[in-house]
Amino acid sequence: MLGCVRIATVRQMAQVITEEDADGRSYVRRALRKLAELGSAETNGNDGKHPIWNLTPAGQKALADGNELPPRPRAGIGAKAVKAGFGPHGVAVTDMILAFDGRKHLTDCQVEVNHAIKETGLSFNTDAVLALPTKTSEVRLFELDNGTMSQARLAKEVWDYERYAGHRVWEGARGTIGRTFPFWQRHRYTRSQTFPRLHVVLAGKEEHLLDNRLQALADDVKGIAVAVWVNTLPRLQRGEPWYEIGADDPDRRRQRYPEPVGR
Fold first, then answer.
1. pTM value?
2. In this predicted structure, what is the pLDDT of residue 175?
3. How far is CA 106 from CA 85, 174, 244, in A?
4. Could you report the per-residue pLDDT of 117-131, keeping only the tens digit for each?
5. CA-angle at 242, arms to 238 and 248, nearest 5°
6. DSSP assignment string, the chain
7. What phi, psi does 221 have (nearest 5°)?
8. Paired strand residues for 230
9. Contact, 183 vs 162, CB < 8 A?
10. Is 2 within 8 Å of 8 (Cβ atoms)?
C-alpha cells in the first residue's frame, strides 16, 4: 500500500488489509515496527496524534525488485512531503483513494502525477490518477482540496485541466497540409477517446462549509469544457453521489484555444 499511495496511517493500512468489520491496527503496528527495524519503512511526522508512515528508499527498492508493482521510476517515497508539512494533505488523498473503492484499485493508482506542456509553460500535479478504463477513457483524474487553498486558487487548478485539454499540436510532413491533434490524446492518454473525467474532492472543513465550497466551485467553473465531478470527502465515504459541474465539450475547447501554426 505504501508503494502505491506513498504515505498512510495505521488506520488507513488496517482499513485495506483487514475485513471491513475487523480492527487490524495492532497487527499493522507490529508489521510496521518490523519493517522499520529492517530499514524499509519509517515515520517522519503526524496527522494529529497518528504517525504518518512511508517507505524508505531501501523499502521502495525492495518493492520494485520483487515486481510487486508496475515500474514507477519517478515515484517518491513521501518523506519529503511529510517533512515539508504536506502530511495531512497526503493522508486526505489516501482517504479519498480508499473512499473511491481503493481497496480494489490500489495497484492501479499513482499519486502526484505531473501534467505539463513545455510550449505553453503549463505544469501542474494531479493528486491521484486511477487507471480504471471505460469505453471512452483509460484513466480518471483526482484532485483533493484539504481546505487550505483559496477559492480562487482551487478554481484556477480546475481550469488548468481545460487549458491542458485544449492544447493542440500540429502534425504533418514538411510541405504538406497536415492537421492538428489534441496534445493529451497524442502524447499522454493515447487510448482515450475523450479527455479523462476530473474528480474534485473537498475535505478539511466542517461539512456545511464543504457544501458552501462545493457550490462556490460550481459557480467559478461554470461553462468549463471538460468533464468535472465534485464531492465532499464525508459524502464520498458514505457512498453518496457525485455532482456534475462540467461537461466534456471538445468543440468548445477548440474554439477557445488557438490552433498551432503549421510548418
1. 0.90
2. 60
3. 24, 45, 25
4. 999 999 999 999 999
5. 160
6. -HHHHSEE-HHHHHHHHS-TT---HHHHHHHHHHHHHTTSEEEEEEETTEEEEEE-HHHHHHHHHTT-S---TT---SHHHIIIIIHHHHHHHHHHHHHTTHHHHGGGEEEEEEEEETTTTEEEEEEEEE----SS-S-EEEEEE-S-S-HHHHHHHHHHHHHHHH-EEEE--TTS--EEEEHHHHHT-TT-SSPPPEEEEE-SS-HHHHHHHHHHHHHHTTT-SS-EEEEEHHHHHTTPPPEEEE---HHHHHHHSPPPPP-
7. -110, 20
8. 200, 243
9. no
10. yes
Q: What are the cell numbers at 71?
A: 515500474
* Backbone angles phi and psi of 70, in degrees to 5: -60, 150
Distances (CA, A) of 48 to 7, 87, 104: 15, 10, 28
CA dist 161 and 246 (Å) reads 11
Q: Residue type for 175, please?
A: G
Name the phi and psi angles at 246, rounded to 5. -155, 145
Q: CA 99 → CA 109, 231, 249, 260, distances in Å?
A: 13, 11, 28, 41
pLDDT of residue 20: 65
Residues sharing a CB contact under 8 Å with residue 99, sequence separation 6 or more, in sequence order: 233, 236, 237
Three cell numbers at 92?
Answer: 486526505
Q: What are the grid coordinates assigned to 236, written together?
A: 464520498
Polymer length in residues for the chain: 263
